[in-house]
Design brief:
The chain is α/β, with parallel strands linked by helices and 237 residues long. The protein has a single domain (2-233), classed as TIM Barrel (Alpha-Beta Barrel), CATH 3.20.20.380. It contains eight helices and ten strands. The protein has an eight-stranded parallel β-barrel with strand order 1-2-3-4-5-6-7-8, surrounded by four helices. Helix 1 (10-19) packs parallel to helix 8 (221-233). The longest helix is centred in the N-terminal third of the chain and has 14 residues, at 68-81. The radius of gyration is 17 Å and the shape is globular.
C-alpha cells in the first residue's frame, strides 16, 4: 500500500521520509486546500529527499474553474517544476458546470510532458457533478496516474461507499487512474476504512501532524511510522 503525506516545508518532507512515507504532496496554504508552493522550496525538497515529490499546481483556492490568465500562470509553474529531478504534478480543472475541463487539462498535461508525466488529479473531482463519470473520463489521459478523492464528501470516511465504487471501476477498467483516498483520515479510522473501501493508496495531512514546542503544526515522523506499520499489516486484496 502507498502512503502519501502532505508537506509544507523541507522539514515536513524529511519527517515524512523518516516515518516511511512513499510520496509527498508539496503544497502551500494548507488552510485553502493547498496552493502552488514556491519553486525554491520544491527545489530544496527534491534535492534533499529520495521520496516521490508531487508538487501542487493551483493558483488560488476560490474554485477549480480557470480562465486564460490562470491557465497561463499554471503552465508557467509547470514549466518551472519540470526542471526538478523526476517531477510530479498535482492539478485539476473543471468547467463552470462542474465537469472535467478536458481542454484545459490537455493543455496543462502537454506542459507537464504528457505520457512521461506523473500527475495526480486532485480533489477537484469531489466537486464534479457526476464523480463516477469524471473518474472514467480521466482514464483517457495516460499521464494521470492517480485521483485523490474523499468520495465527494467533506471527509473520506463519509464518502467510503463511493470510494469503494471507484475502486471497483479501477479494477474493472484497465488504464484508469489509481484511486487514492484522502481528507479526514486518521490512524484510528484507517483500519476500518481500508477494509470497507479496498483502496491501495492513502493521503494524510492533519492525521500525521503534531504541534511542536512553539505551537507550530509539523509532520510527526512517529505518526507517519504508525500509519506505515498499519498499512504494512493490512492483507493484500
Amino acid at each position: 500500500m502507498k502512503l502519501e503525506v502532505i508537506a509544507l516545508s523541507l522539514e515536513d518532507a524529511l519527517a515524512a521520509e523518516e516515518g516511511g512515507a512513499d510520496r509527498i504532496e508539496l503544497i502551500a496554504a494548507m488552510e485553502q486546500g493547498g496552493l502552488t508552493p514556491p519553486i525554491e522550496l520544491a527545489e530544496r525538497v527534491a534535492a534533499r529527499t529520495k521520496l516521490d515529490v508531487q508538487v501542487m499546481v493551483r493558483p488560488h483556492g476560490r474554485s477549480f474553474v480557470y480562465g486564460e490568465p490562470e491557465l497561463e500562470r499554471m503552465a508557467e509553474d509547470i514549466r518551472a517544476i519540470r526542471r526538478l529531478d523526476k517531477p510530479g504534478f498535482v492539478l485539476g480543472c473543471l468547467t463552470p458546470d462542474k465537469r472535467v475541463d478536458s481542454r484545459a487539462l490537455s493543455r496543462l498535461l502537454a506542459e507537464a510532458g504528457e505520457s512521461g508525466a506523473r500527475v495526480t488529479f486532485h480533489r477537484a473531482i469531489d466537486e464534479a457533478t457526476d464523480l463516477e463519470q469524471a473518474y472514467c473520463e480521466l482514464g483517457a489521459f495516460p499521464a494521470i496516474r492517480r485521483v485523490l478523492t474523499s468520495g465527494g464528501a467533506p471527509a473520506a470516511p463519509a464518502g467510503a461507499a463511493l470510494i469503494r465504487r471507484l475502486r471497483q471501476l479501477e479494477a474493472a477498467m484497465p488504464g484508469t487512474p489509481a484511486v487514492m483516498a484522502g481528507s479526514g483520515l486518521t490512524i484510528e479510522t484507517l483500519p476500518g476504512f481500508l477494509i470497507e473501501t479496498g483502496v491501495r493508496e492513502v493521503h494524510l495531512g492533519t492525521g500525521v501532524r503534531s504541534l511542536d514546542g512553539a505551537g507550530r503544526s509539523r509532520v510527526d515522523p512517529r505518526k507517519v511510522a504508525k500509519v506505515r506499520e498499519l498499512l504494512d499489516r493490512m492483507p493484500t486484496r
